[in-house]
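Task: sequence design from structure.
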């Protein structure tokens, strides 16, 4: 029988198994809280993510199920590895992943990376991880510096797949709730989640590594378009948000400043790559495998060491069937959590057997 202990972190109760202690807060969001902890079983620091009340409705249950399923199957050096998962007696889900020292957001806020080699190293690893994610037909949908973790040796991990979607899935969330650094196509009423959404986010992250901040959050609707251009009038009819439409209308005949006015770099290769990543037209935007071929990251590019996923999801998968909450709960607890523990146990037994054979 698994034993649980209750730990209060910033007013939130964490119900974790007794192998985890010394919980410290790392990141607080509306539906989840992330802490660091010590795993006494392996005597190492880990990250504990609490998914709060995922069974309030079918949509939240479905999101939790897909996040867990993706973390189990997406195995790559630049993706945070799932170490453990469990459901507490209060029906909260806890995801335990490998721990990294800091987020890219923390590094950017402490000191802009500018034109240092660190910018190239981190950008390359983001693109390498994205190539793998996209090869699985998955769109991350929430790429931002706080969801990119950095280790002491500059190893980078992409984390937080709670907004991930299968490529081609219909956009159902209100625009104001969508993450993705507010891409132009979502602003204009894009109906499906596409890989280009993540690539825009990479461009934004790249610019932030150089600049610290690209556009002010308050004026992103207008400032981002000043830099990348405005949609033709024929596309204006696709904008559902009246406030956005009202802001854009008087600007359609305004002359845009070039993107280089917003990104403070003298590196022409960096500027060229940023322009391809932040292209207004998603069809003109670089894909991850194209960006990896760019001269800016060519020093690190190794086609033999940039793997793709063996599994590819589709919209028709059962991940997106409307099921009752109780069914999702059963799928998560039995099909996914139990399966993870069984595979983990099998792996541990195999490792011990190999060690005995070697002796």
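Answer:
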């Amino acid at each position: 029988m698994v034993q649980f202990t209750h730990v209060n972190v910033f007013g939130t109760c964490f119900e974790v198994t007794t192998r985890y202690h010394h919980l410290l807060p790392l990141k607080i969001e509306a539906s989840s809280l992330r802490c660091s902890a010590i795993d006494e079983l392996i005597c190492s620091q880990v990250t504990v993510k609490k998914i709060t009340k995922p069974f309030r409705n079918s949509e939240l249950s479905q999101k939790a199920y897909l996040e867990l399923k993706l973390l189990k199957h997406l195995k790559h050096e630049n993706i945070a590895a799932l170490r453990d998962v469990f459901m507490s007696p209060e029906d909260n889900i806890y995801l335990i992943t490998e721990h990294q020292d800091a987020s890219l957001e923390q590094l950017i806020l402490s000191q802009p990376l500018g034109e240092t080699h660190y910018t190239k190293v981190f950008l390359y690893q983001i693109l390498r991880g994205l190539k793998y994610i996209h090869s699985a037909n998955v769109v991350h949908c929430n790429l931002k510096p706080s969801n990119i973790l950095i280790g002491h040796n500059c190893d980078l991990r992409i984390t937080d797949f709670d907004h991930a979607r299968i490529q081609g899935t219909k956009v159902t969330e209100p625009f104001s709730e969508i993450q993705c650094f507010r891409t132009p196509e979502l602003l204009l009423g894009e109906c499906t989640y596409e890989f280009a959404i993540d690539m825009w986010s990479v461009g934004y992250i790249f610019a932030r590594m150089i600049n610290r901040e690209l556009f002010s959050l308050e004026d992103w609707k207008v400032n981002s378009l000043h830099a990348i251009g405005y949609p033709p009038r024929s596309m204006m009819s696709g904008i559902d948000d009246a406030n956005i439409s009202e802001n854009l209308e008087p600007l359609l005949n305004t002359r845009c400043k070039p993107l280089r006015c917003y990104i403070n770099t003298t590196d022409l290769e960096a500027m060229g790559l940023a322009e391809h990543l932040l292209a207004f037209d998603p069809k003109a935007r670089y894909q991850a495998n194209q960006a990896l071929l760019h001269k800016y990251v060519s020093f690190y590019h190794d086609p033999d060491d940039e793997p793709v996923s063996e599994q590819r999801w589709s919209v028709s998968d059962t991940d997106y069937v409307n099921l009752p909450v109780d069914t999702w709960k059963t799928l998560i607890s039995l099909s996914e959590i139990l399966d993870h523990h069984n595979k983990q146990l099998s792996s541990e037994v195999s490792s011990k057997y190999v060690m005995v054979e070697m002796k």
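The longest helix spans residues 325-358.
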